[in-house]
Every structure is written in structure tokens, then in C-alpha cells.
Design a protein that fits this description.
424 residues, alpha/beta, three-stranded antiparallel β-sheet
């Protein structure tokens, strides 16, 4: 009886061990299969990510390593021996910023954004203008941030200050009146100096004499996308004289008599204007566009449309031309930069629209850009992927096709809407 009992115990033990062994084998096989599946999934994800990454290598330049930029305009020769770098041919151009010493944080923010998105691949010079001497802190910090050379210049007082022929009593009364009305910068003296300088004197600065093109940069702006090309090269190869990204309406309270002065200028300088080929219609068209009508009612034939000049890329030789100087000096003689508050944006825009052929003005629709309170962002999903854009084309502040945008009027009356890349 005890022998039979021993056999039963042995049998049950063997059965239990076999069952446990089968269970353990099942668990191990599950773990192994799961590990293989996870490895395959990870491999597939990696390969997919690698495929997407390499898809944009040609435009991003990921296959080239950039040299480290030290905190000066010189580079360490030993370090550069190990750096493989694609050299881009540069145009005769500079990045231009009118800025004060106290605006250094905003200047560095804009520089960092434009360097990361564009200039680190080209090393264009930076030129800084100020109506006061730059301090050492500003010079050191901006030099460290720039990938190219930096140049600093003091604006001459006769290019900046209010001219002597301005009637001071009339000026003070107009200043107070605009301030009381709540006109934007209506009570600012320095803002008027800046607008007049940008309208008719920035291109006369000695530090810019050797350049053909400029890219205007302001403090506290952001560039949302990698640049898919060198805009200076696009300008030269396609014979463009003026480039913009945003077009909006001007505040009429700042320019109540500007168009009157423009019409007088046009009447006296007919030889400078070709109405067959210019963009006069962009300035005067107020018709319904789709379901949109102008959001402002102008009191003149000028519809108040202008290119937002805080971002502009221009041919300095256009501004240096006799015809542009005649245009500016005629407007300047009216005193509107001080008795009113004429801005450089409408002055530049009207000048470009009247004096240039419409095909000499370019809308850079592939560039993402922000200046408070508006921004522009490419609408193409694949373009935003390719150019690593960080923006929402349908968010608040996106202005391109909103009622307060003049871009559609440019498409209609200017060079039109392009869908093919420009030669570069």
C-alpha cells in the first residue's frame, strides 16, 4: 500500500513539473515572440524615420557639419581642419538692423532666429545702425551671435534729426493733437525721425556704399521656417528690386494728406512713372474681392494698402536712383513726416508700386515670419515639413488671407500668385 502511494506521489510530482515546464516554455516563447515583434516594430519605425529624415537632406544640408562659431569674428584654425562645410556663394548683400543699445535682447532674439533659419549657411555680414554710439556690450554680444562679419555705424545727425525748416510751433500743436486722438505713435518725436530716416536716408549711409542688397531685420521678430533658398540670389537672378512677406492696410489717421502729395508728385514727374507696367492698381483698387471688402474706408483714392516694411529685402540701387530720390524729396518737402506721422511702410510701398515694374516686386510666400501682432506661415503641409516650420497657418494673427490683408489685392493687381519656385 505504501509502495502504491509512493508511485502516486512520484507521478503527481512528475506531472506537476511537466505542467510547470510547459507553462514556463509558453511564457518564454511569448516573451521571445514579443521581443522579436518589438524589435521589428522599432526597426520599422527607425527605418521610417530615417526615410523621412533623408527625404529632406538636400534642402536641410544635414550631410554637412557646420564649424563652431566663437565669440569673435575669427575662427579657430585647428578646429576648422576637422569641419566639413558646404560653401555657398554669396551675393553682395548685408543684413541690416536699425537698433538702440537698450534693444539688445530683442536684437539677439531676431539674430538667433535668422542665423538658425538662414544665415548660418551663408555668413552674410550684419550691419547695425544707431543714432547714438553703440556700447561695448552691444557690439560684443551681436558679434558673438553673427556667423558673418559685423559692422556698426552712427547715423549722422542731419540724416536723423528734425530738419530746421519744420515750423516748431505747428509741429508741437500737431504732435499734441495726434496724441490726444490716440493715433499710434502720434506723440512720438523719435518715431517720426525713424520713419523719415528709413524712407529717405538709410540707403545713403556710408557703411552701405559697397552693398547692392539689404535684408531689413528688426528686434523681437521671428522667422518660423528654414529658408529654402538664398533670397538675395533669387532677387538678382530674377531681376527683383523689392521683396515682402506681408501686405496690410495703413492707419489713415497717420497719413491724411500723403496721397494728395503723391498725386502732386505724379503730375509733376510723369516721366518717372509707367502706368502700363507698374502696380498703381494695387494702391487704388477697392473693389470686392470674393466675399471681402476693404476693412477701412479711405478718404482718398489710395486704398491704404502697403507692404509691411519691418520685413523687406531690397535693391539698394533702386533707392539710390534719381527717380526714387525725387519721389522722397518731393514728399519730404511737404512736412508730413512731422506734421502728420507718415510711416516708411506706405512711403516705400507707394514708391515701389509707382516706380518699379510689377514684375520687379516679389512676394516671398515660402518664408514664415512674425512681427507683433501679425505673422505669415506657408499653407502647404509638405512645405512646412520640409522647411521645419513652427507655425500654424490657420491661427490667430495669421494675416495672409484675412480681411485686414492686402495680399489678395497684390495677387490681383501686382505680379500675381506664383506656384512655381523662382530660379535661384
Amino acid at each position: 500500500m505504501s509502495v502504491l502511494k509512493s508511485y502516486k506521489v512520484a507521478f503527481l510530482t512528475t506531472l506537476l513539473l511537466a505542467t510547470f515546464g510547459c507553462y514556463l516554455l509558453h511564457v518564454l516563447s511569448k516573451v521571445l515572440i514579443g521581443s522579436i515583434e518589438r524589435s521589428k516594430l522599432q526597426r520599422d519605425l527607425f527605418e521610417g524615420s530615417k526615410a523621412v529624415l533623408s527625404k529632406y537632406d538636400s534642402s536641410r544640408g544635414r550631410n554637412s557639419r557646420k564649424p563652431l562659431k566663437l565669440s569673435s569674428n575669427s575662427y579657430d584654425d585647428d578646429m576648422n581642419r576637422f569641419a566639413i562645410r558646404k560653401i555657398h556663394e554669396r551675393e553682395n548683400a548685408t543684413l541690416l538692423m536699425l537698433v538702440r543699445n537698450w534693444e539688445l535682447p530683442g536684437a539677439l532674439k531676431s539674430m538667433r532666429s535668422l542665423e538658425d533659419r538662414f544665415n548660418r549657411d551663408y555668413n552674410y555680414d550684419w550691419t547695425f545702425l544707431n543714432d547714438e554710439p553703440f556700447d561695448e556690450t552691444f557690439i560684443e554680444a551681436t558679434t558673438a551671435m553673427a556667423s558673418g562679419k559685423t559692422r556698426y555705424a552712427l547715423v549722422p545727425t542731419h540724416h536723423w534729426d528734425r530738419p530746421e525748416w519744420i515750423d516748431e510751433d505747428r509741429f508741437e500743436k500737431k504732435l499734441q493733437l495726434m496724441q490726444d486722438k490716440g493715433v499710434l505713435y502720434g506723440g512720438s518725436r523719435s518715431y517720426r525721425n525713424m520713419c523719415r530716416f528709413n524712407s529717405g536716408y538709410f540707403f545713403r549711409q556710408k557703411v552701405l556704399e559697397t552693398y547692392d542688397y539689404y535684408f531689413r531685420v528688426e528686434p523681437d521678430v521671428e522667422y518660423y521656417c528654414d529658408f529654402p533658398y538664398d533670397p538675395f540670389k533669387v532677387m538678382r537672378r530674377n531681376n527683383k528690386k523689392y521683396g515682402f512677406v506681408i501686405a496690410i492696410y495703413e492707419y489713415e489717421d497717420t497719413i491724411p494728406t500723403l496721397w494728395d502729395a503723391v498725386e502732386e508728385y505724379m503730375e509733376e514727374n510723369k516721366e518717372d512713372i509707367n502706368l502700363e507696367n507698374n502696380s498703381y492698381g494695387f494702391l487704388t483698387d477697392s473693389d470686392l474681392l470674393g466675399v471681402l471688402t476693404p476693412i477701412v474706408d479711405s478718404n482718398s483714392d489710395y486704398n491704404l494698402c502697403h507692404f509691411w516694411s519691418n520685413f523687406e529685402i531690397g535693391d539698394l540701387n533702386f533707392f539710390r536712383s534719381d527717380r526714387y530720390k525725387r519721389y522722397f524729396e518731393f514728399l519730404d518737402s511737404k512736412g508730413g513726416f512731422y506734421y502728420e506721422r507718415w510711416g516708411d511702410a506706405p512711403v516705400h510701398s507707394i514708391g515701389a508700386a509707382l516706380l518699379l515694374n510689377r514684375d520687379e516686386i516679389i512676394h516671398f510666400d515660402e518664408l514664415g515670419y512674425y512681427h507683433n501682432p501679425y505673422y505669415t506661415c506657408p499653407t502647404s503641409y509638405h512645405m512646412r515639413l520640409q522647411q521645419r516650420c513652427q507655425c500654424n497657418p490657420h491661427g490667430d494673427g495669421q494675416v495672409d488671407t484675412n480681411p485686414n490683408s492686402c495680399l489678395m489685392r497684390w495677387w490681383k493687381n501686382g505680379a500675381g500668385k506664383t506656384f512655381l519656385k523662382y530660379e535661384q
